[in-house]
Structure formats: C-alpha cells, structure tokens
Amino acid sequence: MSALRLAAPAKVNFGLRVVGRRDDGYHELESVFLPLDLADELEIEVDSNGPRSVDLTLEGASDDVPAGGDNLATRAALGFLAAAGLDHRVRLRLRKNVPSAAGLGGGSSDAATVLRGLDSLLPGAVGPLLLHDLAVGLGADVPFFLDPRPALVTGIGERLEPLSGPCASLILVLANPGQPLSTGQVFAAFDALTPTRRPAPTLRPLLSSLRTAPADSRALCVLLENDLESVARRLCPAIGRLRSALLEWGARAVGMSGSGATVFGVFGSEAEARQAAGRFEAPVWSRVARTQESR
Ligand code: ATP
C-alpha cells in the first residue's frame, strides 16, 4: 500500500476573451491562468490487492458537489486505472476549501491532482501523453492543473504557454456571492446574446501589465476584462455589487474569474487586502489569496 498527500490549487483568470466557437460546442478562449495558494486537500492511497475500485471520502463540500462516481476526482482515478489496465483499489480523501461552480477551477484541479498523484505513486503506468489525454477528456481546464504555473491558455484550454519573464506574486481578495453559477449556463447565455462573434483582440500585448501590477492599474484593468462578465452579471447580479465593493475598499483593479461568479480585487498590500476581505458578510465567501509568481 502506498499513499500521498497533495494540494489541489485553485486558479484565477486574469482576463478572458472568447475568440471562437467549435462545431462540437466548445468555445475557443484566450486567458491568463494564475494558480493560487488557496487549495483543496487530497489524500490518495493505492492498494494493489484490488478489486479495481475508487472510494471517495468528501469533506467540507457544498451540496452541488457529487459524493460518488460523478465526482471529478473519482472519475480521474477510474480513468487512470482503466488506462493503465490495473485492478488496484484507490482510496481518496478530499477536503474542499475551494468553492465549487465558482470559476476557480476547483473540480478540474481535483481531477488533475488525482492524475498526477497516481502517476507518481504508479510511475510509468501510463505515459505523459496518455496522462494529458486523460486530463483533456475530463475537462477543458484539467490539463492546466497537471503542472500548475502562470500560463497563457488558448484553444479550449488545452494549449498552455508558461508566462515568460518574471512576474511577482500578487495579493488578491476573492469574493464569491455564495451561490453556484453553472459554466454551461453562462456560455449558453453568452451565445444567445452574442450571436455574431467579433474578432477579439489578443491578450499577448497586455501581458506586460502583469509585471507592472499593481502599480500600473490602468493597464491591468484592460487585461482583466472578461467577455463572460456581462452575461454572468445578468444571471447573478451580486457580481456587480461585489465588484463595486472591492473597488471602494481599495482594490487597484477588479476582475471576474472564469465564468464567475467569483470576483477578485488586486491589492497593494496584505494589510489592505485583509481589511477589505473582512468587510464582506455571509452569504458572501471571501479570502485573501496570493497568485503564484513566475520566474
Ligand atoms: P471552471 O473554472 O473549471 O469552469 P468551476 O470552478 O466553475 O470550474 P468546479 O468547482 O470545477 O467549477 O465545479 C463545477 C461543477 O462540477 C460542480 O457544481 C459539481 O457539480 C461538479 N463537480 C464534480 N466534481 C467536483 C469536485 N471534485 N469539486 C467541485 N465540483 C465538482
């Protein structure tokens, strides 16, 4: 029997542009993904005396997170065992600290972390290419979390370019209205309201604002624009109120992560961030978090 403990980090999207729609319904995106120090906690135990099975113990999860075979962590483990042709028994213990259906990639990160955990407990059982294919099959954001680092992400989420050049860790306040917002619902509303696609300007020229943040907040504000925010705000008006509160309480720039509903403010100091985060009241969930630096 072998075991491992891993952190499954959340991410924020610094800017998101919808650049196209594929025939299979997936949207082509351009976005900067930054891993956070906020993470779910995962314990993985492998017993080679089968039968092939995955038991999941879930802690701290909201009602929308499935406890059994539909959980992305369970699906990742079963997919790994099937691809490797192994009749092992896997036990997973998952403590959810990242709100779900929040645009923070929690479920995708859990799935990827199970894949990389099993890959290190059972080295060579599946090769890197198959591991990547398993990740893509579980969800568009999953490959990013196989090796989470600041990256420009394109395609449906499977094309990853680590950011070149140094970029400091940024201090954020995350605020979520306390209600799940379905990614599918946001994209459906986006398609209904934006039937003709304008060519979206690329994010590439804006990446330098990450290096000057938070001092040059004007440049950062342009990068942080998220094409999904206006439809997300129609579905969840609290997003607009959280954005205004963060700006009023000292954020240099504010963005929405992924398809929402989590909004984040970039702050100049930990003290300012702590003070702002402490002002939100239930049902709003808020946290101070730091983005991973790049070198
Ligand atoms: P993304 O940023 O990748 O769009 P998200 O943060 O909006 O993702 P998730 O937290 O990944 O959304 O969860 C979306 C849905 O996936 C949940 O509402 C839940 O029904 C389902 N789900 C399955 N497994 C998990 C998991 N391990 N954690 C959270 N949600 C899960």
Description:
The structure is a single chain. The chain has 295 residues and is an alpha+beta fold. It has 2 domains: 2-161, Ribosomal Protein S5, domain 2; 171-290, Alpha-Beta Plaits. It is built from 9 helices and 10 strands. The strands form 2 sheets. Strands 1, 2, 3, 4, 5 and 6 form a 6-stranded mixed sheet that branches. A 4-stranded antiparallel sheet has the order 8-9-7-10. Helix 1 links the parallel strand 3 (53-59) and strand 4 (89-95). Helix 2 (106-121) runs antiparallel to helix 3 (128-138). The longest helix is centred in the middle third of the chain and has 16 residues, at 106-121. The protein is globular and about 60 Å long. The structure holds adenosine-5'-triphosphate (ATP). Adenosine-5'-triphosphate binds next to helix 1 and helix 2.
